[in-house]
Amino acid sequence: MPRLFFGLEIPESIKTSLLKVKTDIKGARWQSKTQLHLTLAFLGEVEAEQVIQARDNARKVTHTPFKLEAAGLGCFGKEESPKILWAGVSPEAELRGLQRTLAQRLINDGFTLQNPSFKPHITLSRFRAGAGSVAGLIEHYQRTRFGSWPVQGFALFESSPGQSGSVYTVLERYPLTT
């Protein structure tokens, strides 16, 4: 069964800026350039016919294009023992609107989202138990702006296991239109 999620692709220049954060922290598993994205709706493993259903729902989403900026760092978990280190994005209002529209379509069509509470972020690193602190890193990058980009669409990704972590393949892109 394919493992799917909807998300935003991030421009190469911003990915390059984000990867400069990478440093030696105990237990960190840093994302590669090809893994950086912003998840809108995580579906998890779905049946083949649900892939068609998900695509049909996404094609019906209407939303005006908007601009996002990646800036600052934060983490899920405590800074002293993080689970995930992420870069923030702003402004969140338009992004949350797009996510709500997409999520509502999917839920109304019987999908159960694996990320029901949406916290806009770009995952930079995942951490094993007993990881080192990211407090200094978050403080150092708290005012850093990694770049902005026009969001003109979103994509359906398939996530497959790979030797260096998950491999994300774009199955279809959906342009934003009003």
UniProtKB/TrEMBL annotation:
<keyword id="KW-0436">Ligase</keyword>
<keyword id="KW-0378">Hydrolase</keyword>
<dbReference type="GO" id="GO:0004113">
    <property type="term" value="F:2',3'-cyclic-nucleotide 3'-phosphodiesterase activity"/>
</dbReference>
<protein>
    <recommendedName>
        <fullName>RNA 2',3'-cyclic phosphodiesterase</fullName>
        <ecNumber>3.1.4.58</ecNumber>
    </recommendedName>
</protein>
<feature type="active site" description="Proton acceptor">
    <location>
        <position position="121"/>
    </location>
</feature>
<comment type="similarity">
    <text>Belongs to the 2H phosphoesterase superfamily. ThpR family.</text>
</comment>
<feature type="short sequence motif" description="HXTX 1">
    <location>
        <begin position="37"/>
        <end position="40"/>
    </location>
</feature>
<dbReference type="GO" id="GO:0008664">
    <property type="term" value="F:RNA 2',3'-cyclic 3'-phosphodiesterase activity"/>
</dbReference>
<dbReference type="InterPro" id="IPR004175">
    <property type="entry name" value="RNA_CPDase"/>
</dbReference>
<dbReference type="InterPro" id="IPR014051">
    <property type="entry name" value="Phosphoesterase_HXTX"/>
</dbReference>
<comment type="function">
    <text>Hydrolyzes RNA 2',3'-cyclic phosphodiester to an RNA 2'-phosphomonoester.</text>
</comment>
<feature type="short sequence motif" description="HXTX 2">
    <location>
        <begin position="121"/>
        <end position="124"/>
    </location>
</feature>
<dbReference type="InterPro" id="IPR009097">
    <property type="entry name" value="Cyclic_Pdiesterase"/>
</dbReference>
<feature type="active site" description="Proton donor">
    <location>
        <position position="37"/>
    </location>
</feature>
<dbReference type="GO" id="GO:0016874">
    <property type="term" value="F:ligase activity"/>
</dbReference>
<feature type="domain" description="Phosphoesterase HXTX">
    <location>
        <begin position="8"/>
        <end position="86"/>
    </location>
</feature>
<feature type="domain" description="Phosphoesterase HXTX">
    <location>
        <begin position="92"/>
        <end position="168"/>
    </location>
</feature>
<dbReference type="Pfam" id="PF02834">
    <property type="entry name" value="LigT_PEase"/>
</dbReference>
